[in-house]
Amino acid sequence: MARGDGRLTHDLSDDDKGPQDACGVFGVWAPGEEVAKLTYFGLYALQHRGQESAGIATSDGQSILVYKDMGLVSQVFDESSLSSLRGHLAIGHTRYSTTGGSTWENAQPTLGGSDRGTVALAHNGNLINTAELRTLVDERLGGRAARGELARGNTSDTALVTALLSENPDQPLEETALSVLPKLRGAFCFVFMDEHTLYAARDPYGVRPLALGRLERGWVVASETAALQTIGASVIREVEPGEMIAIDEYGLRTHRFAQPQTKGCVFEYVYLARPDAVINGRVVHEARVEMGRQLAREHPIDADMVIGVPESGVPAATGYAQESGIPFGQGFVKNAYVGRTFIQPSQTLRQLGIRLKLNPLEHVIKGKRLVVVDDSIVRGNTQRAQIRMLREAGAAEVHVRISSPPVKWPCFYGIDFATRAELIANGLGVEEIRASIGADSLGYISDEGMIAATEQPAAQLCSACFTGDYPIALPEDGRIGKHVLETLPIEVRTGHDSSIDLDPADRRQDADGVSLGVSGGAENALLQP
To answer: Which of 23, 189, 265, 411 is catalytic?
Structure first.
């Protein structure tokens, strides 16, 4: 359950929430090592990818033990809990919810299996055929009551995959996985395990990153290369799109369950991944610096100083300063101790707003013409507050530069953006956004400039949040969204025609009598203007 920890919430207001991260997954097979502690530090390195819950599963060859709770990695685990997690292999997860609410029941790793064996699973990404998979699970149950995670109230797409992996106790998990993985549509990086073997799998589009590393006495997989390096593992390669890896006492073996159709998420380079991560051969920090250089070429301005919005805007600000010749300076001080918690601020603190996280350095910016570089604009509330603070601190001019194009479309592959109706760029042009946030000028990097900075072929990147071009086709019946298994679709179409006439008799229900969908919010984001 959600618990208070005495600190202010990371999201000071529901109206001021930026793009929320994906999840972080980690897996290690290393006999003789303290695998729980390796996983803990690996998750610590991936904390930026999810701050709602964390969990670790370990196996000693006889049984699997899972420990998970709501909160940050450092809040969930201590020496006592880690010492109880013994074994030679482990998987871990740090979560931001994209399917299923932020509850203890939905925390990962999920656990399933039968009397003949157990499976634990951790997932980064988001499936788009969740409703279809729920129907498949119900059909295979044949009227019998759900077991495992589903019976305990888990409403995530991960619980459905766990159920499918557990359905055939007479078949080895490896064979079951190779039959289940092709049935999944959407973005997924899985690490999963039975009592003896560690598995890792990545969807055919490779939307989310997953890397393989080597320890002296074992193997490691993680969402980002930085997590491998944190525990002293050498980076071997990325898990390929459409590939499943198995690691046990017999070594490492690999299976191809689908042909690759690479569409890596470009927003990993812009914002999601750590700056020291390497994705498909490109260091993320270098990509962000180059985005800043390209911004300076595309949107030059006469100014006195370039500042970046901590932390994600700083590399691009560095590049802007390098290319423009305008000095780089620190204009904001960030409070490092405003983390994700469950304490809501008072109304008085809400009015202070972003000052709880950022405060301007008045003596640095007073009288200066500033270029303020940030990674994205979602609703615009954050930038509006920043600009107001800078002007109050004496800035003569405030010119905003954004190192990604306008965000106009929601993501269904593992990032929780605002609904389409709430995205400021969906209803306003650049000049109107500039006026709305109070900037003297506003410039977004072009699609071409952003993609060029990644050094990846445009055809191998997903930029749907900027273009609306979804590489993995969304369900025609509209049964999609964060709460798809909680109060789910009612036949909501995914086209742009918002005239939906629903007969109550046509509203679909799942096997437990729960409606299969809800209108409004992200669930019908494509229908909103």
So the answer is: 23
